[in-house]
């Protein structure tokens, strides 16, 4: 069920990597491919190094690790909002070299424009994605995705008139409405109460299954990862070991063996749930620093 990320790193390191900005064979890599990625704010102390992983089209991958291990940094590199100190990230055969409407991003803060209504916020994104679309097409797209997150009655409200959960739903609708090739979620439910969080997790899972969306998501919540993810990446933090600094990195890749048609309420009753949960918790408690 689980495999050592460092072993995968060795395998990946033996494959040829094209020069920056160059196209690569779409057949040789996963849909999203990260190769030997590293980030250092201080040259002698990289936050992480040699991170290798791939995500297949339609796959849902969660990344878990303690605060500061570099999860958001990796997501920002995938979003094209940050650059790595070393390594490469490719999507659909091309190196990621900046932000693109091919990738939808949802952060914990909803980042809606407060002076615009739900409809206008999402229409803004849709018009950026398809500048040639006429008003009726834009409206239809907006209404479809607002309905998908159950917010049709609030479509003409402004963010200040919405609850935290509703605002987060708008962020999700906006990300889906541009039909990105990849959805990047940075703890999108972190600020929500447990009940709202559960409901939106269910909604997200339904939409992702229906649209076969490819997703990379950061979470601190082990159950959330087990519910949503096909695979879970476990990241370790950098640490001093025997007087020498070791950067953090991808410690392990865990395949989720549970039935894909799972729901939040039956999760705890599924065969393999406790073994999986214990394995991840054990990693977080005792193995999540570089060694
Ligand atoms: N602009 C920056 N300058 C210097 N250090 C930074 C900068 N941005 C991030 N860091 C450091 O890089 C490390 C990784 O940050 P990052 O936000 O990616 O971690 P994370 O795993 O997402 O943490 P959390 O779970 O708390 O969000 C942290 O130690 C952070 O302090």
TrEMBL record:
Keywords from the UniProt entry: ATP-binding, Cell membrane, Membrane, Nucleotide-binding, Transport
Membrane topology: Peripheral membrane protein
Signal peptide: none
Record bears the keyword Membrane: yes
GO cellular component: plasma membrane
UniProt-annotated location(s): Cell membrane
Gene3D superfamilies: P-loop containing nucleotide triphosphate hydrolases
GO molecular function, one term: ATP hydrolysis activity
SMART domains, A to Z: AAA
Family listed: Belongs to the ABC transporter superfamily.
Annotated protein name in UniProt: ABC transporter ATP-binding protein
UniProt source species: Hydrogenophaga borbori
